[in-house]
Design goal:
By secondary structure, this protein is of the alpha+beta class. The protein has helices at 101-105, 119-123, 125-137, 141-151, 163-171, 176-182, 187-198, 202-218, 224-231, 236-247, 251-255, and strands at 2-6, 12-18, 51-55, 61-66, 71-74, 81-85, 90-96. It has one domain. It has eleven helices and seven strands.
Length: 320
């Protein structure tokens, strides 16, 4: 069960979800593989099985509270990760829009990239403990989470008035040089700004945002060749390679739950045990981050019209 709603005080989305219920035999036991980086803990002591979900990268940062007592920050991912939903555990999250989390958390996004630290590591034990206690006692923990985060001091040095322009330029498919020029920055200055705001450079951000846009379009039933062209990929095979590199699975695997009729092939079929195809080499800026291909199959997948860098579907992150 997953729900989300926009916030009124922050540039973010509130979401809530609950882990599976019922005996172990009724639950999915997905192979976590070497990618496993659990956000919600291992299966409960009563031996009921947890569900493992593939979380696709989306350029966002989340604060996540779980009813088992965990309060963590999910940093921006460069490739898909796996998260385990323990039986009966409730999860509430605040997902910041791309580039908006650092000013509220007080930490550059690059320090959180591909990490899931405890909130106490960023805010200190006292503030994190008091927030966790309030969330545990609240009838509406999502509202409490939004209110408490909005009441904390903002860190202007970690914000940037150019966030919206940078995101808009990258979503439009503009070359990095044009995005930098429109923001009155050099390309190196843009690289530094992007790492602080989003966790990685503009080329990596462009790959991730383009992937999310392509998945949103593909889930409407568009032919994959059209999806690839509209999203700015060279062709359908290019789209298939990028999906494999960033998510660890084939595009058809991600779309299967949302496409009852057989989709067009996402590229040449790979024989069992074939190596994963890496994403295309992108000529980036000096020091630009390039996500590597990742392994991992057999994980529950679920589509979402919105998506995020955390581990649940939303306006920015996709859970598969």
């Amino acid at each position: 069960m997953y729900r989300e709603r926009p916030t009124t005080r922050l540039p973010a989305t509130l979401w809530s979800a609950r882990g599976p219920s019922g005996p172990a035999g009724d639950l999915d036991r997905a192979d976590a593989s070497p990618l496993r980086r659990l956000s919600t803990g291992d299966p409960a002591p009563d031996k009921r099985a947890a569900q493992v979900h593939r979380i696709l990268p989306d350029g966002c940062i989340d604060i996540i509270w779980s009813s088992d007592g965990r309060l963590i920050v999910a940093g921006p991912d460069t490739v898909a990760t796996l998260a385990s939903w323990a039986p009966g555990v409730r999860h509430v999250g605040l997902r910041f829009d791309p580039g908006r989390g650092p000013a509220r958390l007080g930490v550059p996004a690059a320090e959180l990239r591909d990490r899931r630290p405890e909130l106490a590591d960023l805010w200190g034990g006292g503030p994190a403990r008091r927030l966790a206690e309030r969330l545990a006692e609240a009838d509406d923990p999502a509202l409490v989470l939004e209110t408490c985060v909005a009441a904390r001091p903002r860190h202007p040095e970690l914000g940037d008035p150019l966030v919206a322009a940078i995101v808009a330029g990258i979503r439009a498919g503009s070359p990095v040089a044009d995005v930098a020029r429109a923001a009155a920055l050099s390309q190196r200055q843009l690289l530094r700004r992007c790492r602080q705001l989003f966790g990685y450079g503009p080329k990596t951000l462009a790959r991730i945002l383009r992937l999310q846009e392509a998945l949103r379009s593909a889930r409407t039933g568009q032919r994959l060749a059209v999806v690839a062209a509209d999203a700015g990929y060279a062709d359908q095979a290019h789209l298939a390679r990028e999906v494999r590199a960033l998510t660890g699975v084939a595009l058809t695997s991600l779309l299967a739950p949302a496409r009852p009729s057989g989709p067009a092939p996402a590229g040449p079929a790979e024989p069992p045990g074939a190596p994963r195809l890496p994403g295309p080499e992108l000529p980036g800026l000096p020091g630009e981050d390039r996500p590597a291909g990742i392994p991992g199959q057999g994980v529950a997948t679920a589509g979402s019209g919105a998506n995020r860098s955390t581990w649940l579907p939303s306006g920015s992150r996709t859970v598969a």
